[in-house]
């Protein structure tokens, strides 16, 4: 797989998804007025997408492992763009909700493939750089989303924000569809674990629905718990489990996923509270609120770019520990912020901590997975980054009745819970050992890679 194309496509896919979520938030008030929708219906334009995408990420990753990451990427990106265009011409809110669920299905196909392509294209010891570029691009999209969305909604209406995805989908999706690359050999095509996929989908969809409901749905949590118990029992007995033991059985991978859930919960829960503080308490409009939080995106981009250097110097353990503590400190600073300077410092700490953790923890998850299960690893990473925000926002909304201070202190504690988990991540010595092993592997695999790369030329 061409490395430049893989990196550009991975970045494009990640940016399309990140931009879609941020511009939708800006468009929802106008959408509600023009379509005559209730507040609950507007909430479902987000919930339908979240439930669909979270429930299918891991299974979609397995499809990429079986049929080829590039093929699944093309299907996911083109489908995502088509669903976006359909939402832009939807006649009513019911259509918007249904099409958002369809968009979530294609988003689930797209997201794991963006990581699976990187794992297939780059040697494990060189993954940190591409992951840093990808994370920095997501930070830029998060910063640009409210501004782009506000400009489009103001000048062209809410429908315009959904056509933003169409051109990138065509530009990157069509080449991947026309030249899908070499599919994995038949020897690597393990049978699909459909019962496991259904059980995992039920578990995650009920969990995400329960956490996004207001109030939190106890029935949804109960169904998710029962389905999870049945899933564990099934996976232990399955001949070809959906969740490969080599991936979920790794202590380092489990810790990295736990860290991603905790820090994303803390960050998005904090942003939920911060939006209330900036717009309700301080009386800022959405544009000024976005500008006040701009240091978060700037430091997220800068920290992602710096993270590969930190990983080489301090290893994943030291880097992630310091970054998690930095994020927790940012939440604490925000809990007592009253001036513009204090808010700027708090958002900068949040961005620096989250950007670093994103690169470092994702590198552990993707690097430790073999190419044959890279899609599943990517699906697990994306699942963590979907469940975490749902947990954080649910926690914040539940505690807001007691005031913003207690809510933020609790979220700082959630971030701090990730610090003990970082002890299971590889240190500098283990990183060097892995690099040595990766070097041996790359030498022994080089002939096969050359044969695959030259296959299209022979045709």
UniProtKB/TrEMBL annotation:
<dbReference type="InterPro" id="IPR011701">
    <property type="entry name" value="MFS"/>
</dbReference>
<feature type="transmembrane region" description="Helical">
    <location>
        <begin position="407"/>
        <end position="425"/>
    </location>
</feature>
<keyword id="KW-1133">Transmembrane helix</keyword>
<feature type="domain" description="Major facilitator superfamily (MFS) profile">
    <location>
        <begin position="6"/>
        <end position="430"/>
    </location>
</feature>
<protein>
    <submittedName>
        <fullName>MFS transporter</fullName>
    </submittedName>
</protein>
<feature type="transmembrane region" description="Helical">
    <location>
        <begin position="190"/>
        <end position="210"/>
    </location>
</feature>
<keyword id="KW-0046">Antibiotic resistance</keyword>
<feature type="transmembrane region" description="Helical">
    <location>
        <begin position="158"/>
        <end position="178"/>
    </location>
</feature>
<dbReference type="GO" id="GO:0022857">
    <property type="term" value="F:transmembrane transporter activity"/>
</dbReference>
<feature type="transmembrane region" description="Helical">
    <location>
        <begin position="131"/>
        <end position="152"/>
    </location>
</feature>
<keyword id="KW-0472">Membrane</keyword>
<keyword id="KW-0812">Transmembrane</keyword>
<dbReference type="InterPro" id="IPR020846">
    <property type="entry name" value="MFS_dom"/>
</dbReference>
<dbReference type="Pfam" id="PF07690">
    <property type="entry name" value="MFS_1"/>
</dbReference>
<feature type="transmembrane region" description="Helical">
    <location>
        <begin position="72"/>
        <end position="97"/>
    </location>
</feature>
<dbReference type="GO" id="GO:0005886">
    <property type="term" value="C:plasma membrane"/>
</dbReference>
<dbReference type="InterPro" id="IPR036259">
    <property type="entry name" value="MFS_trans_sf"/>
</dbReference>
<feature type="transmembrane region" description="Helical">
    <location>
        <begin position="42"/>
        <end position="60"/>
    </location>
</feature>
<dbReference type="GO" id="GO:0046677">
    <property type="term" value="P:response to antibiotic"/>
</dbReference>
<feature type="transmembrane region" description="Helical">
    <location>
        <begin position="290"/>
        <end position="311"/>
    </location>
</feature>
<feature type="transmembrane region" description="Helical">
    <location>
        <begin position="323"/>
        <end position="350"/>
    </location>
</feature>
<feature type="region of interest" description="Disordered">
    <location>
        <begin position="439"/>
        <end position="459"/>
    </location>
</feature>
<feature type="transmembrane region" description="Helical">
    <location>
        <begin position="253"/>
        <end position="278"/>
    </location>
</feature>
């Amino acid at each position: 797989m061409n490395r430049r194309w893989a990196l550009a496509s991975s970045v494009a896919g990640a940016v399309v998804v990140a931009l879609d979520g941020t511009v939708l938030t800006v468009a929802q008030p106008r959408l509600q007025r023009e379509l005559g929708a209730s507040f609950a219906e507007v909430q479902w334009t987000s919930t339908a997408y979240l439930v669909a995408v979270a429930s299918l990420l891991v299974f979609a990753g397995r499809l990429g492992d079986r049929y080829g990451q590039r093929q699944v990427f093309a299907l996911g990106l083109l489908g995502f763009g088509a669903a976006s265009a359909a939402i832009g011409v939807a006649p009513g809110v019911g259509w918007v909700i249904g099409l958002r669920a369809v968009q979530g299905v294609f988003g689930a196909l797209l997201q794991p493939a963006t990581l699976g392509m990187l794992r297939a294209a780059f040697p494990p010891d060189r993954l940190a750089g591409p992951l840093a570029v990808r994370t920095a691009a997501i930070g830029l999209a998060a910063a640009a989303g409210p501004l782009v969305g506000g400009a489009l909604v103001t000048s062209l209406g809410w429908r315009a924000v959904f056509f933003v995805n169409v051109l990138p989908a065509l530009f990157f999706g069509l080449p991947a569809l026309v030249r899908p690359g070499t599919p994995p050999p038949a020897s690597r095509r393990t049978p699909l674990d459909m019962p496991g996929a259904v059980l995992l989908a039920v578990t995650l969809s009920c969990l995400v629905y329960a956490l996004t409901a207001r109030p939190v749905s106890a029935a949804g949590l109960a169904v998710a718990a029962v389905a999870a118990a049945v899933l564990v029992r099934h996976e232990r007995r399955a001949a070809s489990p959906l969740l490969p033991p080599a991936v979920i059985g790794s202590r380092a991978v489990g810790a990295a996923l736990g860290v991603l859930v905790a820090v994303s919960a803390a960050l998005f829960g904090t942003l939920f509270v911060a939006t209330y503080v900036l717009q309700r308490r301080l009386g800022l409009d959405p544009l000024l609120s976005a500008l006040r939080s701009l240091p978060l995106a700037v430091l997220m981009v800068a920290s992602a770019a710096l993270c590969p250097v930190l990983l080489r110097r301090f290893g994943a353990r030291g880097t992630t520990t310091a970054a998690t503590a930095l994020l927790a400190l940012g939440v604490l600073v925000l809990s007592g912020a009253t001036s513009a300077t204090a808010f700027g410092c708090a958002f900068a700490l949040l961005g620096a901590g989250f950007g670093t953790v994103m690169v470092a923890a994702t590198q552990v998850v993707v690097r430790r997975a073999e190419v044959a299960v890279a899609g599943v690893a990517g699906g697990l990473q994306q699942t963590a980054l979907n469940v975490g925000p749902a947990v954080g926002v649910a926690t914040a909304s539940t505690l807001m009745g007691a005031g913003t201070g207690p809510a933020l202190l609790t979220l700082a504690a959630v971030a701090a819970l990730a610090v003990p988990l970082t002890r299971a991540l590889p240190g500098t010595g283990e990183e060097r050992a892995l690099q040595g092993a990766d070097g041996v592997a790359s030498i022994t695999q080089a002939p096969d890679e050359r044969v695959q790369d030259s296959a299209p030329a022979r045709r």
